[in-house]
């Protein structure tokens, strides 16, 4: 449960930054949703390839909920991927702002 | 199957998607100096793409090294040793870095292709003035 909580707290921090600086969802909500959904879907397929290819061994950490969405795919994974993609986009849009923003 | 092989396949897909999206969004076009007297001379310069991509990628790779290692250290997941190349950054196998690499290039390319147009502009001033 701790892992999922950390992801949600982290995501809330990203939302606060996004809102304050109007970077992603606060700049183009529809496109942002599409980019995030596409990103999560793509990386889930990548994960699936790793799981089916026998690359990952999911640990039985007490920090995880232990709930599996599919064999080898913990509940936390889509949350992690969404958080990860959101981070990637906030970094890009912030860097874009710094590079292009002549004030 | 090795993790590296899976990465190569997915990075190839990312490469093709980025080429497609970047071409569609004109991200490969070199910025030409404006032609004097031509209307476009008054248009603001195009927002750079590859530089912010590199900057974002650099930070994302560092974050991955730190947090991936932390997540492996607390036992959230592990890897079948035979599937790995044996190269690590901290506790993170190098193969894991294909994810941030892909995300840092592909998602911005998609955003540029479908996202809001126009300059990202300066940071908005705080509406509540509580900075």
Features:
A: mainly alpha; two-stranded antiparallel sheet; 3 helices; B: mainly alpha; 49% helix; 5% strand; globular
Q: Strands across the major sheet of chain B, in which order?
A: 2-3
- Mean of the pLDDT scores of chain B? 85
Give the low-confidence spans of chain A.
none
Written as H for each helix and E for each strand, in order along the chain, the element string of chain A is HHEEEH
> What's the multimeric state?
heterodimer
Number of strands of chain A: 3
What's the helix count of chain B?
3
Percent helix among the residues of chain B? 40-55%
Question: What summary fits the major beta sheet of chain A?
Answer: 2 strands, antiparallel
User: In whole angstroms, how far apart are the ends of chain A?
Assistant: 44 Å
- Reading side by side through the largest sheet of chain A, how are the strands ordered? 2-3
Radius of gyration of chain A: 16 Å
The count of strands of chain B amounts to: 3
Beta-strand percentage range of chain B: 5-15%
Count of individual domains of chain B: 1
Classify the secondary structure makeup of chain B into a structural class: mainly alpha
What is the chain-wise order of helices and strands of chain B?
HHEEEH
- Whole-number radius of gyration of chain B? 20 Å
Share of helix of chain A, binned: 55-70%
Largest inter-chain contact set: A-B, 47 and 48 residues
Can you summarize the main beta sheet of chain B? 2 strands, antiparallel
């Amino acid at each position: 449960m701790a892992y999922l909580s950390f992801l949600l707290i982290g995501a809330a921090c990203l939302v606060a930054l996004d809102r304050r600086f109007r970077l992603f969802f606060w700049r183009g909500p529809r496109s942002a949703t599409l980019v995030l959904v596409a990103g999560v879907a793509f990386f889930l397929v990548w994960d699936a390839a790793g799981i089916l290819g026998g690359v990952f061994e999911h640990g039985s950490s007490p920090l995880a909920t232990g709930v599996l969405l599919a064999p080898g795919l913990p509940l936390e994974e889509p949350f992690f991927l969404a958080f990860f993609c959101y981070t990637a986009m906030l970094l890009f849009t912030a860097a874009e702002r710094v590079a292009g923003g002549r004030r | 199957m090795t993790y590296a092989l899976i990465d190569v396949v997915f990075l190839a897909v990312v490469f093709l998607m980025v080429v497609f999206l970047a071409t569609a969004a004109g991200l490969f076009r070199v910025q030409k100096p404006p032609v004097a007297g031509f209307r476009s001379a008054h248009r603001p310069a195009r927002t750079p793409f590859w530089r912010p991509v590199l900057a974002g990628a650099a930070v994302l790779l560092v974050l991955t090294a730190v947090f991936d290692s932390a997540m492996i250290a607390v036992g959230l997941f592990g890897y079948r040793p035979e599937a790995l190349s044996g190269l690590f950054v901290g506790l993170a196998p190098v193969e894991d870095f294909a994810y941030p690499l892909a995300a840092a290039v592909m998602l911005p390319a998609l955003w540029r292709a479908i996202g809001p147009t126009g300059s990202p502009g300066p940071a908005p001033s705080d509406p509540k003035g509580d900075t």
